[in-house]
Amino acid sequence: MAKIINLRIQNSIFNQFLSEIRNVDTQQDRMRFRRNCERMGEIFAYEISKTLDYQNTDITTPLGTAQIPLVKSNIVLTTILRAGLPFHIGFLNYFDQAENGFISAYRKTINDTKFTIESEYLACPSIENKTVILSDPMLASGASIITALEVLKKRGIAKHIHIVVLIASQKGVDYVLQNLPENTTLWVGAIDPELNSKSYIIPGLGDAGDLAYGVKT
Questions:
Q1: What pLDDT, on a 0 to 100 scale, did the predictor assign at position 104?
Q2: Does 197 have pLDDT greater than 90?
Q3: What is the rounded CA–CA span in Å between residue 194 and residue 171?
Q4: Considering the domain 3-51+74-213, what is its CATH architecture?
Q5: For residue 70, what pLDDT is reported?
Q6: Which residues contact 176 (CB under 8 A, 6 or more apart)?
Q7: What residues does 202 pair with on adjacent strands?
Q8: What's residue 156's pLDDT?
Q9: Nearest one of 134, 128, 179 to 154, comparing CA atoms
């Protein structure tokens, strides 16, 4: 089974940013909401960097040579449009030479309680034998993440996949853990206990895409 790491259980500045994107007053500042998502992406990137492959490299300084272990892993940063973009930037700030991929995944409503996940767009390099970091702010039912992984298979088989979300429902976590390949780590910022009849996370934070960019029509 895939491994899960929950940053919420650690005492760190991460929880300050998490509290602000949840807060109904603070989250109304779109620029601050986007920046907080970005900063949390940076924290996740730092934590994930500890799990990567490294290679000792000689670096020439003005006074000699220093040997420093540098990341050897080939990284592909991927995200689900549009809500994932601010979060994605945080990873790109740290893995600045990484390749990037973008996936569309959206809910197609059937009725008030039923929907399907549709994906009509993929822009991504080969992920064959590379380390993939797939970020999305919210993991509700888990259907979008599983759909995104199925779409990514068109680009190869990854060496390892890191799925990173800010807030997840317990139901969504249980679902994806049962459906993820073994070479996967699920990183979460917080796990909320409830998923309502419309598959919204409770207490959650609302619609991350709308909070970042304005209400869509």
A1: 87
A2: no
A3: 8
A4: 3-Layer(aba) Sandwich (3.40)
A5: 97
A6: 2, 139, 142, 145, 146, 163, 186
A7: 194
A8: 97
A9: 128
